[in-house]
Amino acid sequence: MSNDAPMLEDELAAVSARLRREALSVFGRSLHIRTVDTGSCAVCESEIRLLAAPHYDLHRLGFFFTPAPRHADLLMVTGPAVRAADNLLLKAYAATPDPKAVIAVGACALGGVYPEDDLIHGAVDRVVPVDIFVPGCPPSPLALLQGLLVAVGRLGERVSALSLDLDDGRLR
Amino acid sequence: MASWFYRGLRRGIVTTRYPKQLDEWATTLPSPPAFHSERLTVELVDQLVASCDSGALSRDERQLRVDLGRCTGCGRCLQAAGGAAKASGEPLLASLTRQALIKIVPIRGRSQTP
Fold first, then answer.
1. Domain count, chain A
2. B92 closest CB neighbour out of A107, A112, A142
3. Hey, which residues 14-73 in chain B have their CB within 8 Å of chain A?
């Protein structure tokens, strides 16, 4: 092993991240979504169902729900990743053809509601790699739609520019 | 090519894109808190942290750390903070990295009792 090995790994990580982004932008025009519930209370699911309602109508944007992960480009994962659901989540992830993306939906999936214990991982990214995080309890359909469009690079994310300090002069 | 195909194209109605502007009610959805950093004191922040059931708030010396990913928008901290916090009204929080969801708010207020 040469001394360059760690640096090469860094470069590899950068290249793989770029490839991942580019692969996702291939989905820019049409994308099939499989939802995976890892112990959610079903309110996130209720909001996800609303995406197909006329007001949000995600089909006009080229997004479709599919009943099988083998047909999916993207997994929408809700719930705090209960350990009993490990098998189904890992199987769904393995069955989704590459290139694929994972969206973690809701505060549970992002580690907010349930701490890690014997029954629960507490966050989806402890089980499968997550590409997009959509916070909220539950996230509104509009937030989910933005998450999908951010995932495929059709919208820029805005949370990085968000300041929660009302006195720093930017938000006032 | 069949003529109905071209007729269909001519009559084709362009469906709407993602909304350019948010609906008026979108900012009234439950959203994470925003803080008046000049009104925050260490004592108040400790109360806020204790009021947060989902562990979204934590204090690091003179900084309030807000994890938007964990926030459920329940509003308990808004009640505990009095006028020092209000709902941010930001519903679109999707992020490509977990780190971008962690926000730091400085604690600029001075305690009344040293």
1. 1
2. A142
3. 15-19, 22-23, 26, 29-30, 32-39, 54-56, 66-73
